[in-house]
């Protein structure tokens, strides 16, 4: 469905002597198969939106090639646009008309008859829990309803591939969880392939079969959330021992299966690959050496841990260090 090779995009930023080049996307290779849900994850300024805009033909790559739904993004933009649904980060700009009319107009733009657009639009409203809102103006809708309306617009022409740019940004936790259900149903109910950007780790984890991590314009990881977490970080095992004397023994025993032990008073912790397998043996070892535990905790790694291991920075550090976009720069 998506095949990109060596995609690169540079923006000119600043004026006169201050003029410099910002490399937003720096040699991206990407493959997305039919039926996959892929999460494109990275901190602010990593290059997610720029990549997405290239794949949806809104921006020409400075270098590299990409095909989307079998069409070349640089040479067959009309065919690409007809084959995809796109929900941008800012959402649609609504004209003040009724929600239903907006969706129908959008479908007719894609060449649908009015009758088909109304029928499909109404079915989508029902599936996306927008029933009763056909004759409501989008400006009078809640944030979650507007995002679902954006998704209805993106789906009106029944595309087989849907791009969602940060679909849940700005929503409260309940509206986010609700939208997750709808995003998951894009594949199950509509048979769509989904490519979504996010900087929420839990979102990629919950929705995506595969996570592609981008940092400073480059892909730094590409795997299932499970494999990423298992391969890179290991699980965090934290042992709380009963007495000060036991700390050294616990450090020694946990240290035999973990490389980076940390001690905080009577709490001894370290990362252990596949802790589920290693911990029973560790517990026996501790017990036979006279260590009694107050508590033990095993935490699965998060994708945040993965990012830290891959780049040496937390997602928060990475976002704080991202260069500012130049609003006046030209896109292409
Ligand atoms: N129009 C522009 N002119 C100049 N620089 C730009 C422009 N758009 C983006 N950039 C820069 O390109 C880099 C990548 O930006 P991009 O918007 O693709 O990142 P992102 O990963 O989508 O970030 P976010 O999560 O904040 O949306 C950033 O350094 C950004 O400042």
TrEMBL record:
SMART domains: AAA. GO terms for cellular component: plasma membrane. It is found in: Cell membrane. GO terms for molecular function: ATP binding; ATP hydrolysis activity. It holds the Pfam family DrrA1-3_C. Its main location: membrane. Residues 2-241 form the ABC transporter domain. One of its GO terms (biological process) is response to antibiotic. Keywords: Antibiotic resistance, ATP-binding, Nucleotide-binding, Transport. SUPFAM superfamilies: P-loop containing nucleoside triphosphate hydrolases. It is a peripheral membrane protein. Belongs to the ABC transporter superfamily. This is ABC-2 type transport system ATP-binding protein. It comes from Nocardioides albertanoniae. The lineage of its organism: Bacteria, Bacillati, Actinomycetota, Actinomycetes, Propionibacteriales.
